Amino acid sequence: MKLAASLSYYTIFAMAPLLIIIISLVGSVFGKDAVQGTVYKEIKGLVGSDAALQIQEIIANLQNTHNTAIGTIIGIVILVIGATGLFTEIQGSINFIWSVKAKPRKSWLKYLINRGLSFVLVLTLGFLLVVTLIASTVVDVMGDKLEKFFPDATVYLLNTLNMVLLLFTITSLFLVIYKVLPDAIISWRDALIGAVFTALLFSMGRYLIGLYLGRSGLGVTYGAAASIIIILTWVYYSSVILYFGAEFTRAFALETGHGIRPKTTAVFIIKRESTEIPSSRLN
Questions:
Q1: Which of 151, 162, 230, 243 is least crowded, fewest Cβ atoms below 10 Å from its Cβ?
Q2: Which mean pLDDT values do the consecutive 10-residue runs of the chain (283 residues) have?
Q3: CA torsion angle for 25, 28, 34, 36 (degrees, to 10)?
Q4: 174 and 195 in contact (C-beta within 8 Å)?
Q5: Are 181 and 195 contacting, i.e. CB atoms less than 8 angstroms apart?
């Protein structure tokens, strides 16, 4: 729970830079407006229209902040550090869950390696979004043609294809996170099973979290701050699912799979539980 709370706090500050980078990368292929519309639609489906508009406004304000060349360069550096910091936080947490730790090395070198690896994951997110947009376009075109012949069945077919597409995208993201990000070696099979489990759990949790946020009355309770509270709540429960999936992946790999071992640049760590002192010894 502490790891999820920490990640939620960090995500609030890293979300806008991450989305700006992804929109810029994918927007160069499909057009910025089209990508922004898709991102807004997905966020709206997760946290509601008010919170989605809040995120959209934050992104717009950040994009309009840097008008000079120097300001643009500084802005890009800040965006990259903010976006990659999110994955660095996830890396440290999964390392802890999997009981591994990077060996001590020059701090600046470790920092650059972590940031570089995190930026690769940002690019992976952009690539997955490109694939999703292409696949969605193909599905829509197929749907328009099939609807002329099978109007009733087309709706169910499109919903099923969209669900499969979303599950594939989420599974791919978790697979990359579990396989590449930690300072540990895990087989592709074990990482894939863990990613599929986490993706299914995330898909179910996505619906339940949305149901809770829709009926909890947070807007009445928190007023103007409701949008931030809703985003924070959704990110927190998503973080819990991510780390629960990491726990499942570790258990599966150790009990049934090929195990987990540290990379050559890392070592195992032993997490010791504090021993409770009997009350009789305190007297």
A1: 151
A2: 73 72 70 72 69 72 60 63 76 90 69 68 65 62 62 68 81 89 91 94 80 66 68 82 93 91 83 52 47
A3: 30
A4: yes
A5: no
Please indicate, yes or no, if residue 273 is contained in any of the structural domains.
no
What pLDDT is attached to residue 282?
43
Q: What's residue 84's pLDDT? A: 72
Domains identified in the chain, total number:
1
The phi and psi torsions of 277 (rounded to 5 degrees) equal -85, 125
Give the phi and the psi of residue 272 in degrees, each rounded to 5: -95, 135
How high is the pLDDT of residue 277?
Answer: 47
What is the rounded CA–CA span in Å between residue 223 and residue 214?
15
Alpha-helical segments (H) within 181-225: 188-215, 218-222
Q: Could you tell me the residue range of the domain that residue 238 belongs to? A: 2-268
Do 249 and 190 form a contact (C-beta atoms < 8 A)?
yes
From residue 64, alpha-carbon distances to 57, 60, 68, 192 in Å are 11, 6, 11, 40
How confident is the model at residue 249, as a pLDDT? 95
* Residue 95 within any structural domain of the chain: yes
Structural domain contains residue 243: yes
Digit-coded pLDDT (tens) for 22-35: 777 767 766 777 67
CA distance 214 to 236: 16
pTM: 0.73
Query: By C-alpha distance, which of 189, 6, 233 is closest to 97?
Result: 6
Helix 188-215 vs helix 32-47: crossing angle, to nearest 10: 70
The token duo for 158 is 């499109």
Nearest by Cα to 213 from 202, 195, 226, 194? 226
Domain contains 278: no
- Residue 149, token pair as written in the block: 């012949």
